[in-house]
Design brief:
By secondary structure, the chain is of the alpha/beta class. The protein is about 40% helix and about 15% strand. The N and C termini lie far apart (about 70 Å). This is LacI family transcriptional regulator.
Length: about 325
Amino acid sequence: MSINEIAKHLKVSKSTVSLVINGKAEQGRISKALAKRIMDYVEEIGYKPNALAKSLATGKSRTIGLIVENIGDSFFGPIALYIEENLRPYGYQVFYSSTFGEPEIANEILNTMLEKKVEGIILSPTLGQEEQIHYIIKKKTPLVIFDRRVVGLKTNYVGTDNYTASKKAVQHLLDKGYSSIAMVTIDSPQPQMQDRLRGYLEVVEQHGSSPRVLKLPFRTEKIKDSSTVQEFFQQHPDIDALYFSTNYLCVKTLKILNTQFPTSTFGIVAFDDHELFELINPTITCIRQPLEAIAKEIVQTIIRQLKHAEADFVETIIPSELIIRRSSEK
């Protein structure tokens, strides 16, 4: 049944029904008794307004755009589900998409979401998005950046303590008796990756050791063969422990080497947990990011901006946890 049919049945104007359904009865000077009669009938017939029509009538889409690097990976996938779960009680639906780290795709997705009138944006930015993000801030569209910062732009940010947690991971290996610790990371200037690298370098240098860093391509599928990894180990035969800046690099490297390092002689720690890490022998020690807590804080921040457009920007850092398993035990 349409609004027009409801109006005819109740013998009132179509505009009256529209105002009541969209919560504007008082604004339209419609009596409480008439508004109640209309809503009672709407509930009786189970009328559900068309989402597009309701959006046009209220100026609210009740949608939030979530843009991440890869919605299918072990970090962004759970984050997306937690965000969706925490936004639902506020009456918001989530539109999400993946950039795959490509600025052109990221900008296209962002433009499309803004055209679709999403009420807010939750973004894990790629490099090269600074201009678009500056536009969103200037336009006063509610925005929360997470996981990776945008250098030089002040906005809402939610993330973890990449630098401190990285230092904790490397120090843990040193405390366990490993002395020649190498780091495997990605060849990327992303702030969170630079923070993790900086933490590694600081602890190793303070210990008087020589840093050994293997940088693999940002997109691991671009690694054509295993020679780069194998050559790194051949060049540094004294390595007795590895620190991985991401969980997928850990999985990829172990797969390339096609071996399992005995815990009695070789240490492994990865940044970010992975479901495989409790199945691999030895089980893998990791820095576990507080995904649920991060998602909850993202939602609280975007809701605050939606309710108070002039609210001050907030930066929230939620500490990660070192999960000790057999791979770092001598």
